[in-house]
Write a structure and sequence with these properties.
Blueprint lengths: L3 H5 L6 H25 L2 H13 L12 E10 L4 E4 L2 E4 L4 H6 L7 H6 L2 H5 L5 E3 L8 E13 L6 H14 L5 E5 L5 H11 E2 L5 E4 L12 H14 L5 E5 L2 E4 L4 E2 L8 E2 L7 E3 L3 E3 L14 E2 L7 E5 L6 H7 L6 E6 L10 H12 L3 E6 L11 H8 L3 E2 L5 H12 L6 H8 L22 H9 L5 H21 L3 H9 L14 H10 L7
Parallel strand pairs: 1-5, 1-6, 6-8, 8-9, 16-17, 17-18, 18-19
Antiparallel strand pairs: 2-3, 4-5, 7-15, 9-10, 10-13, 11-12, 13-14
Helix pairs in contact: 2-16, 7-8, 8-13, 15-16, 16-17, 16-18
Bound molecules: asparagine.
Length: 519
């Protein structure tokens, strides 16, 4: 499994079982992968067929099935900046004009020959990529925000505008690219991942370290890669594309201000690598296990903050920070979630805040790794009422807090619970402590959840593939109750497991050897 997280989160599942799950998920997902690409651009096909039949005999042959539509929301950032008085500032109404002159980002001949603008809207904001290696045409429309912003000037209201624009245009496009400054891109990507619920299409944030107008720049590659992925693959996630890699948006952090390789996703491997081929790690791609309609939540609570512990921090500083109206903070602790346990003054401040309903999430200051309770210095924070942030980045934890605290119909206890649940793949699945046994009907559900199974058919496929194996495992250890539970759940205990034997054969063999009982 490319995503090692999932194996780690199954303490009670045997390695045999997890490799079976891997094989199964690979099969399901590679089948889906194929159908996903086919699903792409159905709307475009329909639209362009109508155009084709009205275009007349002189119109060149269209191959509309190869077209996909992507909406580009240009919010600002260095990618579209120019120098004014020696400093970089966003330059309005310039980007599309520049893109139009770049053959790798626009094929004007195709646009003219196929009367692209007659159908897809004005020339000022509609462009088309040259034919991709997968024989696709990506037609993209740029919606420029006003004013364009350096991302340092963005607030939660700007996140809401992006989310609303995606919602408004959701049906018309196959995917979305958000051009954004790099400085706060990890925050926006995280926030959008929570704001967008039941997302079924890719939303990819990108930008650059050097303006696209300069001779040497990373903007062209980043925009091209984001467009190709958004237009050709159904990756139903808020992602961030930078320097040939596609990341889950709520897993990234900006790690370098002076390199084209500006982002890292320390606790999750990339969703895709765009090298000679674009390789998608389908095992890692998040799939919501629902077919519910896409919706956005734009209400975010702004009474949140980030507090980084440091040796010698005073209780006065902590108390001041936790004063109302503060409702939730992300405490950046040492190592695996540790804080001084010899500082009763500090722990008392945390305790008093959590007692009055402030949610404090414990995240590590380390770039990589998770919060645990291995040390007494970590346990002290649990005792003070902090919520463990597992392996969430501070950016993801903060925006999740802002999203969760805005849910007025939930109690503080429910909000705390929601903070410790994995909502959008922002943390490792919280299955620890789930004491699963073979007789527990949740067993399959937990496996399905970890594979992000999204429909009934997939769940059934998992059940059909796993039940013979589970039944054999139950037989082997003589767990007749489990065998009965599996049989009642609809499994055929006469079908063979991974070693070609039926559960009954296993049980007979085991009892012959003095192991199990006769069923
Ligand atoms: N200050 C810029 C921004 O975040 C940095 C960039 O985009 N590279 O908008």
């Amino acid at each position: 499994m490319a995503d090692g997280q999932r194996c780690r989160s199954f303490p009670s599942v045997s390695s045999e079982m997890s490799s079976l799950g891997t094989a199964l998920s690979n099969t399901c997902l590679s089948q889906l992968e194929h159908s996903d690409v086919c699903l792409q651009s159905q709307a475009s096909v329909h639209r362009r067929r109508r155009l084709s039949s009205s275009a007349g005999a002189e119109s060149p042959e269209l191959s509309p099935s190869t077209e996909a539509r992507v909406l580009v929301l240009n919010t600002g950032g260095t990618i579209g900046m120019m120098y004014h008085n020696n400093v970089l500032c966003p330059e309005p109404n310039a980007l599309v004009k520049a893109l139009r002159k770049l053959p790798i980002l626009h094929d004007e001949l195709y646009a003219q020959q196929t009367r692209l603008y007659d159908y897809y809207g004005p020339q000022e904001n509609t462009l088309v990529l040259p034919l991709s290696r997968q024989n696709k045409r990506i037609v993209y429309t740029v919606l420029e925000y006003s004013p364009l912003l350096d991302s340092c000037n963005m607030t939660t209201d700007d996140w809401a505008s992006i989310a609303k624009d995606i919602e408004k245009n959701y049906e018309k496009y196959d995917g979305f690219v958000v051009l954004h400054g790099t400085d706060t891109m990890a925050y926006t990507a995280s926030a959008l991942s929570f704001m967008c619920e039941h997302l079924g299409k890719p939303v990819i944030l990108t930008g650059s370290q050097v303006p696209i107008y300069e001779m040497r720049n990373d903007g062209r590659d980043n925009l091209l890669g984001a467009l190709l992925i958004a237009g050709q693959f159904v990756i139903p996630e808020v992602c961030l594309y930078f320097h040939h890699k596609l990341y889950r948006g709520n897993r990234v952090t900006k790690v370098d201000s002076g390199s084209f390789n500006a982002f890292a996703s320390p606790n999750l491997p990339p969703l895709a690598n765009a090298e000679v081929d674009i390789k998608i790690n389908w095992d890692t791609v998040w799939r919501a296990n629902t077919t519910a309609k896409f919706l956005v939540h734009t209400h975010m609570n702004r009474n949140v903050g980030l507090l980084r512990l440091f040796p010698g921090i005073t209780a006065d500083t902590v108390r001041a920070f936790l004063q109302p109206p503060m409702e939730g903070i992300v405490l950046e602790t040492y190592g695996s979630g540790n804080a001084p346990n010899n500082r009763t003054d500090l722990l008392e401040e945390f305790r008093m805040a959590t007692d009055r309903g402030v949610i404090i999430v414990n995240c590590t200051q380390c770039l990589r790794g998770s919060v645990t309770t291995s040390y007494a210095t970590g346990k002290a924070l649990i005792d003070a009422g902090l919520v463990p942030g597992c392996d969430m980045t501070p950016e993801a934890a903060l925006s999740k807090l802002s999203y969760v605290l805005a849910k007025q119909d939930l109690s503080v206890q429910e909000k705390r619970k929601m903070m410790s649940r994995n909502l959008r793949g922002e943390m490792i699945a919280d299955l620890e402590g789930a004491k699963l046994s073979l007789r527990d009907s949740r067993f399959l559900q937990v496996i399905a959840k970890s594979l992000s199974i999204s429909c009934k058919e997939e769940l059934e496929a998992i059940r059909d593939a796993l039940t013979p194996t589970l039944a054999c495992a139950a037989s082997k250890i003589g767990d007749l109750e489990a065998l009965e539970a599996i049989r009642q759940a609809g499994a055929d205990i006469h079908s063979t497991g991974y070693d070609g034997r039926t559960p009954l054969e296993v049980v007979s063999f085991s009892s012959a050897c003095g192991g199990g009982e006769k069923y």
